[in-house]
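Notes, p. 3: input format for complexes.
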Amino acid sequence: MANLEFPPQYTRAGNTTHTGEVHSIPQDEQFAYGTAGFRFRAEKLPFIVYRCAYLASLRARQLDSAIGVMITASHNPAQDNGVKLVDPSGDMLSSQWEIYATEVINASDADLTKVIRDFEKNFQRSSQSKIARGLIHNAKVVCGIDTRVSGPHLMEAARAGAALFNVKFVDIGVVSTPMLHYSVKSFNEPEFADPTHQGYYDAISGAFKKLYEMTQEPDGSRYQPELIVDCANGVGAPRFRELLKQIPKEMLSIELRNENGELNHGCGADFVKIAQKMPANFILTPDAAPEPKCASFDGDADRILYFRAKNGCQYGTAELFDGDRIAVLFATYIKEQLDIYTASKPRNSLKMGIVQTAYANGSSTRFVREHLKIEPIIVPTGVKHLHEAASEFDIGVYFEANGHGTIVFSKHFDSVVRRNASPLVHLRRLHLFSRVINETVGDAFADLLATEIVLRHFGWSMDDWNQKLYQDVPNVQIKVPVADRSIFKTTNAEQTLVKPDGLQKRIDEEVAKYKDSRAFIRPSGTENIVRVYAEADTLENTHRLGKSLEQVVLSIGSA
Ligand code: 16G
Ligand code: ZN
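Output follows (559 residues plus 16G):
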């Protein structure tokens, strides 16, 4: 059992921030492990990170594996921070352990020892017998931080938490969230990649370069290898700069912007998506080259959007090429390779699936159904739900419209494509493409490289990518503050409200007033607000519908 002497600076009473101030947390304040782990103002986090790392060490012992601790608050402002745990295969923490994490964090200082002792009994038998037989070799806690000032201090809290149970602690420094996921998998599956920054760069850029060599640009190609990337002033800046050192300029010529300013301030994928505006330092003068290809990362580089200036740069409006459009691009490429394969080996087919959320633009969903002949799976918001649903397929493409997404591959895919050194070009392409992708989690760097390869393969410019797939239906998202978001309950992958009573009927009545319309209302999982999403035939009607639904929510909130 762990030695449970808690350093005072990591207790609720003595919780000490990176500036050395004591910021006590009330003994009864409750927290929940949400879709993003625990995420708050940084001063709340030292005791939370400490307890999370302890829990990670327990899980590491239980599974005799590396477990990840990522300290980041993604697209939130610089003053925030957060922590989430990563399971051995690089996946998100299992749901059962999210409940444990919530219990352990919510204990008062006085109750903590008892909560932990009770909890240790749960898994004691199996892991203790392993320990007794000397079978704990690989247990370790692997911890990464993003670029926030509170990061190094929280890394020390994590180190102290892991030390409680005497589990090896590996500090991998400043990394993107996907790099941490990738490293955890690499520690546990050494054949996957070397568990270092360089190991990650080599694996992903190596696959990119080989696939590049095999990719023929078609005659009349309009593909452009030039790209400007908004790094959100986050971890994408230093880490992507390093990754790019591995890729010759003739293959990809990338200019990085927003590298050293205020994190996520007026820039980054979340800003661009919600504001539908060009980020800071992208508003070009009217005489600048027209509409260069741009992409934006979020603060921890697990999301990416492409965009370009709309109707002349000076107005600052951005035209988005969002997660849906990236997913459809990837799926179109994969389908082309798969169709060739299936024609030659009909009995050994590989099944591709596409997973979206209710936020997916209606046109993208229609395109997948009608042109790719795949029925998209719609799941509730949150990467975990998408990842799980995608794992049912040999090739599971999933993306949230906000730019978080990746592709997962089955064991059957491994044996047919990766382990079989086939001379067939389409299988080799699929193999290399699956290695450019970071299958553990959505990864802005990997998704960018994969997007560029596919655009080059098709010979597409931004215009082509926009016009040859589908046209987005106008859409709007509105945040509505409410007193208590827990009264809003949804079903049907968040597309239908079941509570409060009668509200869905009012939504349906509003939606029926517009052509080609669709809308839903769901409580946010990360803020005390309700989100309204609406689509209609014109932008004007979309705004009208959105506004009227906002009023519907407000009438309930104030009732
Ligand atoms: C979290 C989720 C993200 C989702 C967002 C929705 C993960 C790792 N992140 O950031 O996927 O889009 O929440 O936020 O699952 P909302 O519930 O406030 O709309
Ligand atoms: Zn993020």
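The domain at 8-174 is CATH 3.40.120.10 (Alpha-D-Glucose-1,6-Bisphosphate; Chain A, domain 3).
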